[in-house]
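Chapter summary example.
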Amino acid sequence: YMNSQPVRLGNSAYDQLQLDLYGAVLDAAYLSNKYGSPLDHDLWQNLRRILDWLSENWREEDEGMWEVQGGRQQFLSSKVLAWVALERAVRIARQRGLPAGEGRWIEQRDAIYWDVMENGWDPERGSFVQHYGGKALDASLLLMPLVKFVGPTDPRWLATLDKIQEELAYDSLVYRYNLEEAADTGFDGEEGTFSMCSFWLVECLTQAGRLEEARLALEKMFSYANHLGLYAEEIGSSGEALGNFPQAFTHLSLISAAVHLDAALG
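The structure predicted for these 266 residues follows.
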């Protein structure tokens, strides 16, 4: 496809540590329990084991959601999603009256919150950053208000949102990070903008009350779908589809952005 070389076989991410995935699992469990089928006993016991492990290991460095291959870091999005796992677990336990290590989970949930606020905020830059000790921005920070870690109009968050728009967004398209500033990915060359991140931006603008910006960004993104309304993982500088196609993550973020914007517009 488009003379893309070399062809890579397999995926070395299979043995990486990605702490963000536990947040995704527990958020899905929370939503399923709330809107779908209540969690059964065996599933809850499995989730408890995951949470006990996470309570012991969330301070570890990992490769993060972008599966970097240049070395582990204390990625902010990993910490935020670890917080999500513990926060959603506490909610489930309270709603259902399920047996839980709730006191410990609350303690670790709050520890993550303060850790992120102390180490993930760069006062000189005036924004949250990709990883502790770094200066780079990262589009995964857009998840912070979407998972309710910060309020969508929190001054720190709005400053970060503005920085992301200034430095990572090109019109409605959003890059994951600046390759020259971010953690070493282990790959050479350039990459396109990430469609999923573009829809995250739409939803963040919606939650911040910037509805006209959000509507315009979403309408522009519609022009990058193919004739069937499908999106690739990435969009190149000339509007070409790159990466996985079609990508489920992208379409899930599209649905979420559209639903929230529609509700906000009334």
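To summarize the output: The first strand starts at residue 121 and ends at 122.
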